[in-house]
Amino acid sequence: MRWGATEKPWRALERAEGIFPYDPQLYLIKGSVLQATGTIVEAEQEYRKSLRLRASDQAWYAVGQAQAIQGRYAEAASAVARAARASLFPHEIYRVL
């Protein structure tokens, strides 16, 4: 990972993981930080950790984004469709497809 300004927040997230290892939101945040630094494969892994703890539209959408960035469009479309099916506001997600 390229650290720069993200080093201190990343360390805080790692400490939080030691305290709250079963919080799916934590892994979404970690994935977002990784995605923002261009570490897409690792970001997808964090998003999938979140899904293993609790499936959510937000996590499926994040997985889809990471897959699309990697050029895995069929998988991305499937993940985004799952996000839409799980969402209270699917029309917002369907626009991405």
Explain the layout of strands and helices:
Layout: H1 7-19, H2 24-36, H3 40-53, H4 57-69, H5 73-86, H6 90-94
Helix pairs in contact: 1-2, 2-3, 2-4, 3-4, 4-5
Order of helices and strands: HHHHHH
User: Uncertain runs with pLDDT below 50, 5 residues or more?
Assistant: none
CA radius of gyration is: 14 Å
Give the N-terminus to C-terminus distance in angstroms. Answer: 30 Å
Strand portion: under 5%
Number of helices: 6
For the biggest sheet, the summary is: none
Global geometry: globular
* Tally of strands: 0
Structural class: mainly alpha
Helix share bin: over 70%
Mean pLDDT: 92
Describe the structure.
The chain has 97 residues and is mainly α. It has six helices and no strands. It has helices at 7-19, 24-36, 40-53, 57-69, 73-86, 90-94. Helix 3 (40-53) packs antiparallel against helix 4 (57-69). The mean pLDDT is 92.
Task: Compose a concise summary of this entry.
With 97 residues, the protein is mainly alpha-helical. 74% of the residues lie in helices and 0% in strands.
Q: What keywords describe this structure?
A:
mainly alpha, 0% strand, globular
